């Protein structure tokens, strides 16, 4: 028993060192912009760069619209499948896993071919259309995480009983979804939303090939032309991602426990 605990601690310490030592080294390197002393000059330069502010704001706005689109698509679909079409669950789960299998570059090249300026739906003929297409692409990339978060939330509630009770009181389908189901799975939806936000903030491939002024291409551009600023940006991006993950962990404490319903 003691031997098992010893090796468990060894594995934990080695894993923590593997994870934190490169991060600490990156942070320490980002402080070396001023020769001979440690300073936050690289962070000041990055945060004061108008391109950083513009691209980060663009990605935040894109993340918000991606989350809204994901909620509008996933919540009704997952609810209806759990309520009326449980036989389709394996098929839908397989479809939602496809963005993990198909590379983003393949998806975006398909978008370019299908929605170019000469297509019946020329999204890429305007900046607004290209940004809308980017949001759709981001929603596709985030689909596996959003769907599983919402599906997990739906498992913790009695969907059929809540629906029947709402119908007895005269509620329509829109009211049932927005005022009965959504509040009960809000924690799960927020978890999927934070995962979506973390994906959108650092995504490079789609934004670059669609020529959008997003944060991911800015990170790559700075990394190709500077030394210390990319390290500072990496630490900032890591902090944003871990902030989202910490919020998910915090929200999960308030999530209802699984009721193990068969619906």
Automatic annotation (TrEMBL):
GO cellular component, one term: plasma membrane
Cross-referenced Pfam families: BPD_transp_1
Keywords attached to this entry: Cell inner membrane, Cell membrane, Membrane, Transmembrane, Transmembrane helix, Transport
Location within or outside the cell: Cell inner membrane; Cell membrane
Transmembrane segments: 7-27, 56-79, 91-112, 124-147, 185-210, 230-251
Any single biological process term in GO: transmembrane transport
UniProt keyword Cell membrane present: yes
Limits of the ABC transmembrane type-1 domain: 52-249
Main location: membrane
UniProt membrane topology term: Multi-pass membrane protein
Family: Belongs to the binding-protein-dependent transport system permease family.
Annotated PANTHER family: INNER MEMBRANE ABC TRANSPORTER PERMEASE PROTEIN YDCV
Name of this protein: ABC transporter permease
Natural source organism: Mesorhizobium neociceri
Lineage: Bacteria, Pseudomonadati, Pseudomonadota, Alphaproteobacteria, Hyphomicrobiales
């Amino acid at each position: 028993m003691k031997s098992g605990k010893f090796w468990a601690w060894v594995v934990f310490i080695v894993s923590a060192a593997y994870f934190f030592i490169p991060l600490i080294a990156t942070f320490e390197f980002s402080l070396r912009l001023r020769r001979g002393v440690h300073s936050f000059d690289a962070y000041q330069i990055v945060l004061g760069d108008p391109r950083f502010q513009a691209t980060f704001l663009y990605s935040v706005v894109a993340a918000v619209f991606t989350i809204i689109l994901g909620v509008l698509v996933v919540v009704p679909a997952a609810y209806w499948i759990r309520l009326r079409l449980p036989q389709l669950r394996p098929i839908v789960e397989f479809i939602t896993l496809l963005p993990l299998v198909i590379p983003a570059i393949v998806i975006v090249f398909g978008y370019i071919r299908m929605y170019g300026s000469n297509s019946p739906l020329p999204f890429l003929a305007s900046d607004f259309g290209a940004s809308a297409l980017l949001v759709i692409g981001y929603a596709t990339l985030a689909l596996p995480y959003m769907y599983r978060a919402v599906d997990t939330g739906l498992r913790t509630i009695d969907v059929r009983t809540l629906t029947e009770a709402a119908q007895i009181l005269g509620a329509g389908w829109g009211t049932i979804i927005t005022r009965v189901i959504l509040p009960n799975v809000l924690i799960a939806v927020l978890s999927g939303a934070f995962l979506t936000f973390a994906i959108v903030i650092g995504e490079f491939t789609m934004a670059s090939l669609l020529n959008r002024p997003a944060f991911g291409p800015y990170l790559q551009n700075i990394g190709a032309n500077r030394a210390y600023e990319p390290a500072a940006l990496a630490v900032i991006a890591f902090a944003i991602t871990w902030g989202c993950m910490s919020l998910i962990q915090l929200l999960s404490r308030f999530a209802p426990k699984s009721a193990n319903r068969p619906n």
